[in-house]
Amino acid sequence: MSYVIKPIGYVRKTGDLNYLEINEEYWAATMHLDLFSHAIVLWWIDGMDTPEDRQITLANPPRNKGPVPSGIFACRSPARPNPIGHTIVKIQSLDDMNRRILIDHMDANDGTPLIDIKPYLPSSDKVDNAQVAPWFEHLENRYSE
Question: What is the pLDDT of residues 88-124, one digit of tens each?
Fold first, then answer.
C-alpha cells in the first residue's frame, strides 16, 4: 500500500515575518479560518526524509533532560517513520491577494511543505491536567490564558 501526499503550500520566513503560503488551488479552503485565533499546521519534515532517517527508533532530543535515549514516539525528534511535523500557530491575518496566512511563529524551515491546516478547537484539542515525562516538565506553555 502506498500513499501520496501533495503539498498545499509552503512555510515562508522573511525577516521577522512568518507566514503560510497556500497554493492557489487550495486558497478557497481557508475561507473562515480567520474566525479562529489558532490553527494546527501539519508539515513534512523534508530534511529528515531518507530511508535511514525513517528507520531511527531512538533519539536524544536537544531539550530532553532525562534518560537517554527516548523512543521516537515519546519525544519530538524530527526523525520519524513518517516525517510529519505539527505546530500550533496563532493566526494574525489572512492575505487574500497573496494567498498567505500570517502567523506568530513556525518551527519549520523556510520552504517546508505544508500538508494540512486545521482550526484549533479548545473543546477537543486542549487536555487539562495532561501528564508529561519528568524531563519535559521544564518546558513552558507557549500559549496560556
Answer: 999 999 999 999 999 999 999 999 999 999 999 999 9
pLDDT band at 137 (very low <50, low <70, confident <90, very high): confident
Q: H or E segment at 55?
A: helix 51-55
Q: How many CB atoms lie within 10 A of CB 97?
A: 5
- Domain ranges (residues) in the chain: 9-136
- Residue 100 cell numbers, joined: 498567505
CATH homologous superfamily of 9-136? YaeB-like (2.40.30.70)
> What is the structure's pLDDT at 64?
53
Per-residue pLDDT for 67 more than 90? no
Q: Could you tell me how many residues make up the chain?
A: 145
Residues 6+ apart with CB under 8 A from 92: 102, 103, 104
Integer Cα distance of 47 and 70 in angstroms: 21
Please give the C-alpha separations between residue 122 and each of 52, 73, 88, 126, 130, in angstroms, as whole numbers: 37, 24, 12, 5, 14
